[in-house]
UniProtKB/TrEMBL annotation:
Residues given in the record as substrate binding sites: 8-10, 24, 43-48, 51, 73, 111-115, 142
Residues under site feature: Important for catalytic activity and assists the phosphoryl transfer reaction to Asp8 by balancing charge and orienting the reacting groups: S111, K142
Stated name of the protein: Beta-phosphoglucomutase
Active site (record annotation): D8, D10
GO molecular function annotations of the record: beta-phosphoglucomutase activity; carbohydrate binding; glycosyltransferase activity; hydrolase activity, hydrolyzing O-glycosyl compounds; magnesium ion binding
Keyword terms: Magnesium, Metal-binding
Annotated organism of origin: Nostoc cycadae WK-1
From-to range in the entire protein, with total length: 747 to 961 of 968
Highest taxon of source: Bacteria
Entry binding sites for Mg(2+): D8, D10, E166, D167
Family: Belongs to the HAD-like hydrolase superfamily. CbbY/CbbZ/Gph/YieH family.
GO BP, sorted A to Z: carbohydrate metabolic process
Amino acid sequence: DIRGVIFDLDGVLTDTAEYHYQAWQRLADEEGIPFNRQANEALRGVSRRESLMLIIGDRKYSEAQIQEMMERKNGYYIELIHHVTPKDLLPGAIALLEELRQAGIKTAIGSASKNAQTVVELLGIVDKVDAIADGYSVKQPKPAPDLFLYAAKELGLQPKQCVVVEDAAAGVEAALAGGMWAVGLGPVERVGAADVVLPSLAGVKWADIQAKLSE
Ligand code: B16
Ligand code: MG
Protein backbone atom coordinates (compact mmCIF):
# COMPACT_ATOMS: atom_id res chain seq x y z
CA ASP A 1 0.00 0.00 0.00
CA ILE A 2 0.92 3.64 -0.33
CA ARG A 3 3.26 5.06 2.28
CA GLY A 4 4.49 8.28 0.71
CA VAL A 5 3.38 11.22 -1.43
CA ILE A 6 5.85 13.20 -3.52
CA PHE A 7 4.66 16.66 -4.50
CA ASP A 8 5.89 18.63 -7.45
CA LEU A 9 6.26 22.25 -6.32
CA ASP A 10 5.54 24.71 -9.11
CA GLY A 11 1.95 24.22 -10.30
CA VAL A 12 1.02 21.83 -7.48
CA LEU A 13 1.75 23.45 -4.11
CA THR A 14 2.25 27.00 -5.41
CA ASP A 15 2.10 28.93 -8.63
CA THR A 16 5.64 30.13 -9.20
CA ALA A 17 4.92 29.38 -12.90
CA GLU A 18 3.80 33.01 -13.23
CA TYR A 19 7.19 34.24 -11.96
CA HIS A 20 9.07 31.83 -14.24
CA TYR A 21 6.97 33.21 -17.10
CA GLN A 22 7.67 36.85 -16.24
CA ALA A 23 11.41 36.18 -15.92
CA TRP A 24 11.56 34.34 -19.28
CA GLN A 25 9.48 37.06 -20.94
CA ARG A 26 11.90 39.74 -19.75
CA LEU A 27 14.87 37.76 -21.06
CA ALA A 28 13.16 37.05 -24.40
CA ASP A 29 12.26 40.74 -24.80
CA GLU A 30 15.86 41.75 -24.13
CA GLU A 31 17.08 39.25 -26.71
CA GLY A 32 14.41 40.22 -29.24
CA ILE A 33 13.04 36.66 -29.30
CA PRO A 34 9.27 36.30 -29.79
CA PHE A 35 7.70 34.78 -26.65
CA ASN A 36 4.34 34.95 -24.89
CA ARG A 37 2.16 33.24 -22.28
CA GLN A 38 1.04 30.62 -24.73
CA ALA A 39 4.62 29.70 -25.65
CA ASN A 40 5.36 29.55 -21.92
CA GLU A 41 2.89 26.65 -21.49
CA ALA A 42 5.43 24.36 -23.19
CA LEU A 43 7.91 25.14 -20.39
CA ARG A 44 5.75 23.77 -17.57
CA GLY A 45 7.90 21.50 -15.38
CA VAL A 46 10.76 21.71 -17.88
CA SER A 47 14.30 22.35 -16.57
CA ARG A 48 15.94 25.77 -16.89
CA ARG A 49 18.29 24.75 -19.70
CA GLU A 50 15.61 22.88 -21.66
CA SER A 51 13.27 25.85 -21.25
CA LEU A 52 15.89 28.19 -22.72
CA MET A 53 16.49 25.76 -25.60
CA LEU A 54 12.77 25.81 -26.40
CA ILE A 55 12.74 29.63 -26.31
CA ILE A 56 15.79 30.16 -28.54
CA GLY A 57 14.73 27.48 -31.03
CA ASP A 58 17.23 27.30 -33.88
CA ARG A 59 18.89 30.66 -33.12
CA LYS A 60 22.64 30.16 -32.66
CA TYR A 61 24.19 31.02 -29.30
CA SER A 62 27.52 29.99 -27.77
CA GLU A 63 27.63 27.92 -24.56
CA ALA A 64 28.88 31.05 -22.73
CA GLN A 65 25.88 33.04 -23.98
CA ILE A 66 23.52 30.23 -22.96
CA GLN A 67 25.02 30.17 -19.46
CA GLU A 68 24.73 33.95 -19.18
CA MET A 69 21.08 33.91 -20.26
CA MET A 70 20.23 31.15 -17.78
CA GLU A 71 21.85 33.18 -15.01
CA ARG A 72 20.13 36.38 -16.10
CA LYS A 73 16.71 34.71 -16.14
CA ASN A 74 17.37 33.20 -12.72
CA GLY A 75 18.31 36.63 -11.35
CA TYR A 76 14.95 38.00 -12.51
CA TYR A 77 13.17 34.96 -11.06
CA ILE A 78 14.87 35.33 -7.67
CA GLU A 79 13.84 39.03 -7.56
CA LEU A 80 10.23 37.95 -8.16
CA ILE A 81 10.05 35.08 -5.65
CA HIS A 82 11.06 37.38 -2.79
CA HIS A 83 7.36 38.21 -2.61
CA VAL A 84 6.32 34.57 -1.96
CA THR A 85 4.58 34.00 1.40
CA PRO A 86 2.47 31.18 2.91
CA LYS A 87 -0.52 32.91 1.22
CA ASP A 88 0.90 31.68 -2.08
CA LEU A 89 0.18 28.05 -1.22
CA LEU A 90 -2.47 26.81 -3.66
CA PRO A 91 -5.93 25.90 -2.29
CA GLY A 92 -5.96 22.52 -0.54
CA ALA A 93 -2.17 22.20 -0.34
CA ILE A 94 -1.63 22.82 3.35
CA ALA A 95 -4.72 20.80 4.37
CA LEU A 96 -3.51 17.77 2.44
CA LEU A 97 0.07 18.04 3.78
CA GLU A 98 -1.27 18.19 7.32
CA GLU A 99 -3.72 15.34 6.76
CA LEU A 100 -0.93 13.13 5.39
CA ARG A 101 1.27 13.91 8.39
CA GLN A 102 -1.60 12.93 10.71
CA ALA A 103 -2.15 9.70 8.77
CA GLY A 104 1.53 8.76 9.07
CA ILE A 105 2.13 9.06 5.32
CA LYS A 106 5.57 10.40 4.41
CA THR A 107 5.78 13.49 2.21
CA ALA A 108 8.46 14.89 -0.09
CA ILE A 109 8.98 17.66 -2.61
CA GLY A 110 10.13 16.56 -6.06
CA SER A 111 10.87 19.74 -7.98
CA ALA A 112 13.07 20.37 -11.02
CA SER A 113 13.84 23.81 -9.61
CA LYS A 114 17.22 24.81 -8.20
CA ASN A 115 15.25 27.38 -6.20
CA ALA A 116 12.92 24.83 -4.59
CA GLN A 117 14.56 25.01 -1.14
CA THR A 118 14.07 28.82 -1.05
CA VAL A 119 10.47 28.59 -2.23
CA VAL A 120 9.66 25.86 0.32
CA GLU A 121 11.11 28.09 3.07
CA LEU A 122 9.17 31.16 1.90
CA LEU A 123 5.96 29.09 1.79
CA GLY A 124 6.62 28.04 5.40
CA ILE A 125 6.29 24.30 4.76
CA VAL A 126 9.83 23.10 5.59
CA ASP A 127 8.58 21.19 8.64
CA LYS A 128 5.56 19.76 6.76
CA VAL A 129 7.72 17.64 4.44
CA ASP A 130 10.12 14.78 5.20
CA ALA A 131 12.44 15.28 2.22
CA ILE A 132 13.21 17.69 -0.60
CA ALA A 133 14.48 16.57 -4.00
CA ASP A 134 15.30 19.57 -6.19
CA GLY A 135 17.23 20.72 -9.24
CA TYR A 136 20.52 19.86 -7.52
CA SER A 137 19.58 16.30 -6.51
CA VAL A 138 20.00 14.46 -9.82
CA LYS A 139 21.47 14.99 -13.29
CA GLN A 140 18.66 13.77 -15.58
CA PRO A 141 15.67 16.12 -15.61
CA LYS A 142 12.01 15.01 -15.88
CA PRO A 143 10.69 13.07 -17.86
CA ALA A 144 13.50 10.83 -16.54
CA PRO A 145 12.34 9.23 -13.25
CA ASP A 146 15.60 10.04 -11.40
CA LEU A 147 14.29 12.95 -9.33
CA PHE A 148 11.30 11.03 -7.98
CA LEU A 149 13.39 7.89 -7.39
CA TYR A 150 15.77 10.07 -5.38
CA ALA A 151 12.84 11.43 -3.34
CA ALA A 152 11.47 7.91 -2.68
CA LYS A 153 14.90 6.78 -1.53
CA GLU A 154 15.13 9.77 0.82
CA LEU A 155 11.79 8.67 2.29
CA GLY A 156 13.07 5.09 2.61
CA LEU A 157 10.28 3.79 0.36
CA GLN A 158 9.96 1.63 -2.75
CA PRO A 159 8.64 3.40 -5.88
CA LYS A 160 5.40 1.41 -5.82
CA GLN A 161 4.73 2.69 -2.30
CA CYS A 162 4.75 6.28 -3.57
CA VAL A 163 2.28 8.59 -5.30
CA VAL A 164 3.55 11.58 -7.26
CA VAL A 165 1.36 14.67 -7.61
CA GLU A 166 2.23 16.60 -10.78
CA ASP A 167 0.86 19.36 -13.03
CA ALA A 168 3.20 18.74 -15.98
CA ALA A 169 3.13 16.04 -18.66
CA ALA A 170 6.89 15.53 -18.22
CA GLY A 171 6.36 15.00 -14.48
CA VAL A 172 3.57 12.44 -14.92
CA GLU A 173 5.76 10.62 -17.40
CA ALA A 174 8.67 10.65 -14.92
CA ALA A 175 6.51 9.23 -12.12
CA LEU A 176 5.17 6.38 -14.26
CA ALA A 177 8.65 5.64 -15.65
CA GLY A 178 9.84 5.30 -12.05
CA GLY A 179 7.13 2.75 -11.22
CA MET A 180 5.14 5.13 -9.03
CA TRP A 181 1.49 6.09 -8.99
CA ALA A 182 0.67 9.43 -10.59
CA VAL A 183 -1.96 12.01 -9.75
CA GLY A 184 -2.18 14.66 -12.47
CA LEU A 185 -3.55 18.12 -11.75
CA GLY A 186 -5.09 19.97 -14.68
CA PRO A 187 -6.67 19.20 -18.04
CA VAL A 188 -6.58 15.62 -19.41
CA GLU A 189 -4.90 16.97 -22.55
CA ARG A 190 -1.93 17.70 -20.31
CA VAL A 191 -1.93 15.12 -17.51
CA GLY A 192 -4.27 12.45 -18.93
CA ALA A 193 -1.56 9.78 -18.68
CA ALA A 194 -1.81 9.89 -14.86
CA ASP A 195 -3.62 7.17 -12.86
CA VAL A 196 -5.91 9.84 -11.40
CA VAL A 197 -6.68 13.27 -12.87
CA LEU A 198 -8.01 16.09 -10.68
CA PRO A 199 -8.55 19.77 -11.48
CA SER A 200 -6.51 20.90 -8.44
CA LEU A 201 -5.89 19.99 -4.78
CA ALA A 202 -8.75 22.19 -3.58
CA GLY A 203 -10.96 20.18 -1.24
CA VAL A 204 -9.04 16.96 -1.95
CA LYS A 205 -8.80 14.48 0.92
CA TRP A 206 -6.24 11.66 1.15
CA ALA A 207 -9.12 9.16 1.21
CA ASP A 208 -10.37 10.54 -2.15
CA ILE A 209 -6.99 9.91 -3.78
CA GLN A 210 -6.72 6.41 -2.26
CA ALA A 211 -10.24 5.52 -3.42
CA LYS A 212 -9.55 6.71 -6.97
CA LEU A 213 -6.23 4.86 -7.12
CA SER A 214 -7.88 1.58 -6.19
CA GLU A 215 -10.74 1.92 -8.72
P1 B16 B 1 14.82 26.71 -11.83
P2 B16 B 1 8.65 22.12 -10.76
C1 B16 B 1 10.08 23.62 -12.46
O1 B16 B 1 9.53 23.43 -11.17
C2 B16 B 1 9.27 24.71 -13.15
O2 B16 B 1 7.94 24.25 -13.40
C3 B16 B 1 9.91 25.09 -14.45
O3 B16 B 1 9.18 26.14 -15.05
C4 B16 B 1 11.36 25.53 -14.19
O4 B16 B 1 12.02 25.85 -15.41
C5 B16 B 1 12.10 24.39 -13.48
O5 B16 B 1 11.42 24.06 -12.28
C6 B16 B 1 13.54 24.77 -13.15
O6 B16 B 1 13.53 25.84 -12.22
O7 B16 B 1 15.17 27.58 -13.01
O8 B16 B 1 14.33 27.51 -10.63
O9 B16 B 1 15.92 25.76 -11.47
O10 B16 B 1 7.37 22.20 -11.53
O11 B16 B 1 9.48 20.89 -11.11
O12 B16 B 1 8.49 22.31 -9.28
MG1 MG C 1 5.20 21.59 -11.87
